[in-house]
Amino acid sequence: MALFVLRRVLLTGLMLFGLVCITFVVSNVAPSDPAALAAGPDATRDMVETIRREYGLDRPLPEQFLRYVGGLLTGDLGRSIVTTRPVAMDLERFFPATLELVLLSMTFGVLVGVPLGMFSAVLKNRTPDHATRFVAVSLVALPAFWFGILLQLLFSVQLEWLPTSGRLDVAVPPPPFVTGMLLVDSLLAGQWETFGNALSHAILPALVLSFPCLASILRVNRAEMIEVLSSDYVTAAKAHGVSRLRVICVHALRNAMLPTLAIIGLRWGWMLGSTVLVETVFDWPGIGLYAVSSAIAGDFKPVMGVTLLIGLNFMIVNLIVDLLYGVLDPRLRTAP
Amino acid sequence: MSLALPRASFAERHAASIRQLRFYAWSFGRSPSSLLGLAIVLAFLLVAAFGPWIAPYPMDAAGAMNLSNRLKPPSAAHWFGTDEMGNDLFSRVVLATRTSLWVGLTIVGIATVVGVPLGIAAGYFGGAVRAVIMRVTDIFLSVPGIVLALAIVAALGPGILNGIIALSIVWWPGYVRLVEAKALALRNEPFVEAARAVGAGHVRILAVHILPNCTSPIIVKASMDMGLAILAAASLGFIGLGAKPPAPEWGAMISVARNYMPNWWWYAVFPGFAIYLTVLGFNLFGDGLRDILDPKSSRR
User: Fold this and answer.
1) Chain B CA closest to residue A314
2) How many A/B residue pairs have CB atoms within 8 Å?
3) Chain A partners of B136 at a C-beta cutoff of 8 Å?
4) What is the mean pLDDT of each run of 10 residues along chain B (300 residues)?
5) Distance separating alpha carbons of residues B71 and B84, to the nearest angstrom
6) In 3D, which of B207, B77, B224, B124 has the Cα closest to residue A137?
7) What is the pLDDT of residues A91-126, one digit of tens each?
8) CA atoms within 13 A on the CB side of A220
9) Cβ–Cβ gap B231/A143 under 8 Å
10) Domain A90-285 adopts which CATH fold?
């Protein structure tokens, strides 16, 4: 088991290094001059040259690469031109908002996707099953940014049930900072009104973000359930007079756990990626919106920072999922 | 005096393939959702091909100005209403279809041309070749495509061409993964071994024996990816890093339309619905293809 863990950790380190290489290459193929960008639009040629020397941009590429990696190791991701703060500080500030959204969506996706998948499998090839599958395909095809706008039109403008955008109303006092996730912080501080307000802001973006994940959890659970329901041990359990409900909830649910876990690992990174769109629609101040506004300003240090952060996140979550798999299914420990 | 036997007719020579195709068509036609997908895909292709003849105001796609007509709700003259320049939205949505078709074909085309050979090589040769190719692929797959594409576009600068380049760079690894697994399974099949035994070279084995046996999953993935690539390009357009107005592109139209919400709702609703229908069509179509071409994996 120790060897298995070591192998996986080393592999993750290698992949992270590869990702760093990619972001470095992408930053250096840019036709725009980073020194000129940092100096601002009305800098003189001398000022640009000074900045070029200061940032080490006049050094050969291998040396720049070593400096870049060295900077990353000490947590230096460069400086954002738009916010004028170090990128690492910005990420620290914006990431909790994104994490809050993704966790909420993931919870929703699992809580709705697993039962719907099982329901669909039990009623296989009957009308509710076809309807559920059609909805699942639709959820994948829906452009998140467009559907977000539709939900805003319906729930915020027409019905006036939920706020259009942002994380919290201006008049509502924010909770004291603990995790940076408003829902958690307001609960910790016992501020119920703030919690309710934060939740009402989070519902629509979390819903939109959860759809593709919900659809794949539904699909996997349906397939798994159909397989389990036709297996010998379920027939045996039925023959022994075990109730249908017990067969579904105990025997099938346990088997659905592994694939659902895999989907969570796979979808985690995808969700973080989709925040780029969803946060733009809902003005949710997370890393997605930060990446987009920086990219539009032509400021690519923050975009690379977000790319690395999301990649790191995805790799760590997959590492955890892999290790959990090893715990849940010992046969996988020896697999390459 | 001729010794040649009477040549068999086309139908006779290809009886087996024709029977197989008819079986495919029959089983495809049994699924209503596959047929719906096929209908949407065909409609999309027709609209893309005949757009300039379908659109009632084809000049409006080029960015004509007609300010007396700006932001009119849907009516008989303007089915989808008009935008802030007074352009007919129906015409713009119709003409944007061609942009999307072109974008989708380019991205999926580049991805297959790059990804499939790499995947076949990785699966067939194994060893160090496979290790290198698969590690690089894994690194690309460790970041969601849209984020890496955003990073590349941020570095290259906005524009539809840069968007296509960025999406092509992030799209090929999926094909490597898909084909590698298939080629790995095929390399030890008896017919491959037999080919090797009679002295066939690597290139011949790869092209004649491995590649044709990988085509079903590639076709299925490519048809699904058409929709997803169109969606991804529209997403870049929505962010403001893809196509630039006034060029007609669905995502960019929604991006501009956001400034006119909620009072001028039709501006965002119709282009978005076009994206949704297109992606849904290709997904259903791909699903249907998988059911007939690759029935083993469709059960999962």
Assistant:
1) B142
2) 158
3) 18
4) 66 81 81 86 91 77 71 75 77 88 94 93 88 89 87 86 91 91 85 85 85 87 91 90 82 85 81 92 88 65
5) 5
6) B224
7) 888 999 999 999 999 999 989 988 888 888 888 777
8) 23
9) yes
10) MetI-like fold (1.10.3720)
Residue keyed to tokens 């996706």: A109
Q: Measured between alpha carbons, how far is A74 from A77 in angstroms, rounded to an integer?
A: 9
Tokens at B263, concatenated: 């009072």
B235 touches chain A (CB under 8 A): yes
CB distance A307–B136 less than 8 Å?
no
B residues 251-270 near A, CB within 8 Å?
Answer: 251, 254, 258, 261-262, 265, 268-269
- Predicted-complex ipTM score: 0.84
Indicate the domain borders of chain A.
Answer: 90-285
Q: Which residues of A66-86 are buried (b: 16+ CB within 10 A; e: fewer)?
A: eebeeebeeeebbbbbebeeb
Three state DSSP letters for chain B: CCCCCCCCCHHHHCHHHHHHHHHHHHHHHCCHHHHHHHHHHHHHHHHHHHHHHHCCCHHHHHCCCCHHHCCCCCCCCCCCCECCCCCEHHHHHHHHHHHHHHHHHHHHHHHHHHHHHHHHHHHHHCHHHHHHHHHHHHHHHCCCHHHHHHHHHHHHCCCHHHHHHHHHHHHHHHHHHHHHHHHHHHCCCHHHHHHHHCCCCHHHHHHHHHHHHHHHHHHHHHHHHHHHHHHHHHHHHHHCCCCCCCCCCHHHHHHHHHHHCCCCCHHHHHHHHHHHHHHHHHHHHHHHHHHHHCHHHHCC
Q: How far is B94 from chain A (nearest CA, A)?
A: 18
**Inter-chain touch A142–B139, beta carbons under 8 Å:** no
